[in-house]
Specification:
single chain, mainly alpha, 20 helices, membrane
Length: 476
Amino acid sequence: MSATLKIGSENCDIKDDVSSSDAPVLFKTHTDEIPAVISKDRLVTFSKESENITIEVDNRPNHSEEAPLSQTNLLLASTLVCDAKNGRLSNFIPSDQCVRLYLIYHHWGLSYMLYFFIILHHAIAICEDPAVEGYHLPYWVTMCVEFACILFYLFRLLHCASFLPAETFCRDKKNILVIAAIILTAIDMSCYIGLVNSGYAYIAYRWSRPLRPLFIVNFSESKQVRRAFRNIRKTLPDILNVLVLFFLSISLFSLMAQKLFQKRNLKYPDGKPYFNNYFDIYFQLYVLVTTANNPDIMMPAYDSNRWFAVFFIAYLIICLYIFMNIFLAVVYNNYRKHLKNEVRKLVYMKRKSLAKAFDLLKVKKDGVFVIDFKRFNVLLKMIPPARSPMMVNILWYVLDTDGDNAVEKVDFLQLADLLNVTVSEVTDRRSIFDLITPSCFHSKFSMSLRQLVAHTSKYVNVFVFLFLFSPYSLQI
């Protein structure tokens, strides 16, 4: 979904690419206002009665429009909106330090470093013994590289533990699998180094290599891979009944084929016995479902008696065209059902994060909790990428459905989807000639030439093309 914005001096027209015939919508822009932001949101009052001094800490939230906005609440609200936009689970500790550590953890630089170390960790298998010919390296080189990868995994794990609640971190299965893989890999490396240095290199074997794919799946950056595996795991029990029925049907046809062809002493073209063993028959009929051995598997029986073709035709109709289509339909329906549940959970998680952000920024206006433009403006300044004031006005206009200059909670819950919409501003599309030589680009000759080239008539473009590349113009 994309939208094109044409920005003028005072008003802004919103035009959709699909429906260009609609009338433009006009609205007035807001100034770039920012509310008062304070570092602390607790008020301390002193009262003295007789000889005692009472200190009261006022923790009651002030939801008036003139109330200052806490820096911690602003940072926490912007992080919650970013998580809702990117589909992340906001389970960090809601404190200023933990939120900043959480933002550093999800920085794109650290994410790309994780991808680099994961690729490097899997790529060293090419150079490890037994290595690909021509790529063998000494074991201490690959050990040093793998040790660096393990250290970075451990750093990411400890970084994640710094902003998560201890109970949440310890109960997370992903973290348990990563810790187990790190410990087993360290034990394997120690055993391998000890065996090689003690003269037992012929029995040294790296048995921890199959654990390396666990690092791909169990970090937070691989949530899409985990979601796909989770849907497949949930789909398997639902399709088990159809799968068992399919294999039983192949077993029945295998038994029938054994009774039909076993005593006829048929041979394959290479001289081997034809359908003499039950398990061989089962495997050949299983392959026939894929039509990989069709019609070769049928030809010895067909050469003996043409009526035997009826057996194979019935088998293909039942197992290939009926059972396989039923199996495909069951897999598709169950996978789609579990995928819908995943999407519902994702939408619920988005709305929960946005609801928390709304509660941190809300003010009371006419007895209703809303967000005014000042707080909305400073919120968008905290959410990357940077947006122009006109873009902020566009987003505010879309969310302010009733036009009362305030966004209610129901409208605010659509902010994450709105931020994911790709929007381009027409004013940003400046030609390189306009940037280098604006006077020449806006001259009368240049404007006339641009109008001629951009003319809608195809005949004018054809005429200009023929004129520029005619033999007479080339001689000039």
